[in-house]
Amino acid sequence: MLKATLRSFLAHKGRLLLSALAVVLSVAFVAGSLIFSDTVTRTFDRLFASTSADVTVSPRNELDSQIPTGATPTLPASLADRLAKVDGVAAAHVDAAVENLTIVDRGNESVGPTSGAPTIATNWQPSERSPVKLTSGHAPHGADEALLDADTADRKHVRMGDTLTVQAQPGTFEVRIVGIATFTTTNPGAALLFLDTPTAQTRLLGSTAAATSISLDAAPGVDDAVLKQHVAAELGTKTYDLKTADEQAKDAAAQLGGFLDVIKYVMLGFAGIAVLVGVFLIVNTFSMLIAQRTRELGLLRALGADRRQVRRSVLTEALLLGLVGSTLGLAAGIGLALGLIKLMTAFGMNLKSTEMVIGWGTPVASFVVGVGVTFVAAYLPARRAAGVSPMAALADAEVAGLGRPLRVRGVAGSVVGLAGVAALGGCVAASKTSTAGSLLGLGVVLSLVATVIAGPLLVRPVIKVLGGAFPALFGSVGRMSQRNALRNPRRTGATASALMVGLALVGGMSVASASMSKSFDQQIDKTLGADFVIQNSNFVPFSPEVTDKVRGTDGVALVVRQRFTPVAVRLPDGKRIETTAAGYDPRLDDVAHLTYAQGDTAAALGAGHLAMDAKFAREHGVRVGSTVPVEFPAGRHAELTVAALTDQESAEGFGMQGGLYAGFGTIEKYVPGGQDSTLYVNAAAGTGADRLRPLLEKTLEPYPQVQVRDQADYKKLVHDQIAVLLYLVYALLGLAIVIAVLGVVNTLALSVVERTREIGLLRAIGLGRRQLRRMIRLESVVIAVFGAVLGLVLGLVWGVCVQQVLALQGLTAFAVPWATVVAVVVGSAVVGVVAALLPALRASRMNVLAAIAHE
């Protein structure tokens, strides 16, 4: 049996390789994501471990914001002198490092990275732990000298002696580059500017009395944990945050983990799609191969092979396929990880391919996925093969089960489908986002499974409609192609399902994104009343001098500032909610159209007052006039009165739970020294918006990171951000289509072999080569369009449910991107034509007599 199995596997290796490609792709994405994330994690672990101080003392920050606030927490620089006297401390260093700044060159181009990595200005204090070393020039001395890291200098063509402009929170200043510092470890992609310590404190923090942290070196023989205990005894643990080198490294690694998780989950998403679509391909391939080997299997049974041996033989072939696919996939995954490392290097993160990490878990996961998927996919065909009757096989009958009615599938599909409909219905009816989201996920899975199970039942009615015009358009060739697609509903359903999965995903996300875009457009039209919105391109807050410059621009009548701060609110129901609050200048009504359930803007922005979302207030027992305790950064507390309740029907999220905002004076009182996030600007009477825009752009020329946007620009910005998600979905679609095309090619190729004698007879009675090719192409097109129709219908249902979930967050508009729907259907027909090219060509080149004599 083993010899027979190996010979059978090698005899069909060409057909099996098409199935193996699906395994290769899925394993490649799994292996690539694991190798890449392990490599980055190991590299940064070394960086953090080698550069962290023995103990770091920093301001305690119990409040965190998902929205950049621009505020830099500080502590007294004099703390260094006090800590230098603590037992076990060899040295104490003042740190002055900020990221809320912009550096521009003489050409007014930003020197910072464009990859999302930070621009950091800090004080120069070389040590064994420094991530850089001075390689040319000299250390900075005085207010006008600075060092720049070598990677940034090379990328931005900055040379010794060049002058850079630094736009920091206390103000703008110029520095001359007097030295270049080269990274001794991995460059995380950041741009680093070094100043001497007094200059860094004054220019970046506003005073030599301030520091962002204190770094402590342990005396010889003193353990970091022991030193931390000594420092805690001196300072206490309530005011400052104390971390050893290990804790600091773990903290930094945890923050990096969020970035790595995004990449990992995206790649695992690709792997999941490849696995799911590959299952259909493998099931179809083995089912057809077994159907074609009916006589062979029957002969084995007649010679004494029992059912278990036949089943084991088919599963052994699947195991061999999985091993080959997993091995090739692991190799492809290493190449994919290498490509990602090169890509990250192009973005400024200098990872070394020679330090690539391939942990033991990577090959294990690769072979578990590859072999497991193939084994599971081949199990049902193997069971069917084991059911072959020796006499039926020798009589050239089909494999047992292929001709059975589809009643069992119908019942199972109906039961699962009803459960899916119930879950999706519950999602639409739910009033809480968390509940709706959970029911949506369950409904998506169940409806997908139900469609896959019941797909063969839909083949006859749907394909009769889709191919109904074929006989009229293409005559007998069109009629035969339609009947060929109807001949084996199970095979057609499985082939179409591979395409259906990707298109269902695209359909659902396209509806969701179109609805989001339309909702945001409506909200912008409804709420934004300003002529212009001024923001940083990356939404990071900007220096107050930008505000001053804008206010001084000719033709500006009104500037309303927006500033964010993290807060924690203690509510009457006993809950403590951490969120982000906004502060606004008076005359907010002139730049925004706000709807209030109670109160008004004047009350909301009054001293000691607070505005809150009406729905949030109801849920937590807050009324107008209620006083709520509010915690601000740096341990500041206030009792604020809720003076207005808003009814905006706008999306919360983005860290803005509760819709809290107050007057600018209130925010500035409890969070001094912050930075503005947005300016809302109105033109003066007699100055049109068209005339004011070039004046504002000229004013902001020295600040290349700051953008002037009107309503149309703001809508485009939102659309572009939503489009990023769509690009990911389209990439998943591309992968699904590639595997689906392989599936259609495989199915048609095996179908051609299966129908060799039939094709020979058709050719013998006068069917031309061109007609034969057309027949196979039409069969492929109708199968592909069938999959597209199922996918789009399913995707549209999902999209409606996703929109209902979004509606709970205030995104109430609904839109269907019909252009995308039409493009997908047309594209599916093209996919069908492309997939049929090789099988059709092969069929048309058959020798007629040899085909008729085919066994």
Question: Any chance you could write out the topology, listing elements then pairs?
Answer:
Elements: H1 2-11, H2 13-51, E1 55-59, E2 75-76, H3 79-84, E3 89-95, E4 102-104, E5 119-123, E6 132-137, E7 145-149, H4 150-156, E8 163-167, E9 172-183, E10 191-195, H5 197-205, E11 210-211, E12 213-218, H6 224-235, E13 240-244, H7 245-292, H8 294-302, H9 307-346, H10 361-386, H11 390-394, H12 407-429, H13 433-466, H14 470-474, H15 476-487, H16 489-527, E14 532-536, H17 544-551, E15 556-570, E16 576-584, E17 596-598, H18 601-604, E18 609-613, H19 614-619, E19 627-631, E20 637-646, E21 661-663, H20 664-670, E22 678-683, H21 689-699, E23 706-709, H22 711-754, H23 756-764, H24 769-807, H25 818-844, H26 848-852
Parallel strand pairs: 5-10, 7-9, 16-21, 18-20
Antiparallel strand pairs: 1-12, 1-13, 2-11, 3-12, 4-8, 6-9, 7-10, 8-9, 14-22, 14-23, 15-16, 15-19, 15-22, 17-20, 19-20
Organism: Streptomyces kaempferi
Biased composition (Polar residues): 111-128
Subcellular location: Cell membrane
Shape: globular
Low-confidence stretches: 397-403, 651-655
What is the structural class? alpha+beta
Strand content: 15-25%
Number of helices: 26
Membrane topology: Multi-pass membrane protein
Main location: membrane
Pfam family, one: MacB_PCD
Keywords: Cell membrane, Membrane, Transmembrane, Transmembrane helix
